[in-house]
């Protein structure tokens, strides 16, 4: 039997279009067109994924997110929004509210088959983890560095998402709920120094660890701390150092240091 996705969308036409995209990715689609209908279906069966339109009739779905979470049990949640996907730095209230509500995925409209494929793959990855884990976002334009940090963190059972830039992190559909962020300071685009403020506006309560290999400019590390990073690491660093800083950032008692 294929995994089943429950799609909450008040437009029956739009619901069928979205359902077809998931079915092409191996999911069976089920539909609800009101909150009460969705909650009734969630009470009667389990789903592998819950896809909710942010506006259903006159309701904002995010206002009822905790009710959906309880009803959906461990199923990840994707929110469909009309956010400004082509303007990530401008952002949108709906996108940021969805992120701050800690939904697993965003689907800014219009989305396509490849977008849905990303979410289906990540939903399956989450399902295989079998239980809640801390999610770490690594932002670094060095692909080799991302591989190394990912291996360090996954050995300790962290869930790791990757991005090559701040801009990429803001539009990646599968990067929504994170518990800590590891960010390089020198990158193409807006880079990490400016990016810290952008990231903090998107995930205001998520601890951020800065890192850089350009240690001839120590003021970069100081700037990162002054802009909100909880700690700053000089590359290269060992697995033990990284894990220590991540665990410290995730703890209640954070000590800021270089």
Major β-sheet, in short? Answer: 5 strands, parallel
Shape: elongated
Instruction: Please name the fourth-level CATH homologous superfamily of the largest domain.
Output: Response regulator
- The CATH C-level name of the largest domain is Alpha Beta
How many whole angstroms does the radius of gyration measure? 19 Å
The whole-number mean of residue pLDDT values reads 84
Q: How helical, in percent, are the residues?
A: 40-55%
Distance between the termini: 52 Å
Strand content: 15-25%
CATH overall fold name of the largest domain: Rossmann fold
Q: How many helical stretches?
A: 10
Major sheet: arrangement of strands: 2-1-3-6-7
Number of domains: 2
Structural class: alpha/beta
H/E element order = EHEHEEEHEHEHEHEHEHEHEH
DSSP, total strands: 12
Q: Do you know the CATH architecture of the largest domain?
A: 3-Layer(aba) Sandwich
Please, what is the oligomeric state? single chain
Low-confidence runs (pLDDT<50, min 5 residues)? 83-91, 253-258
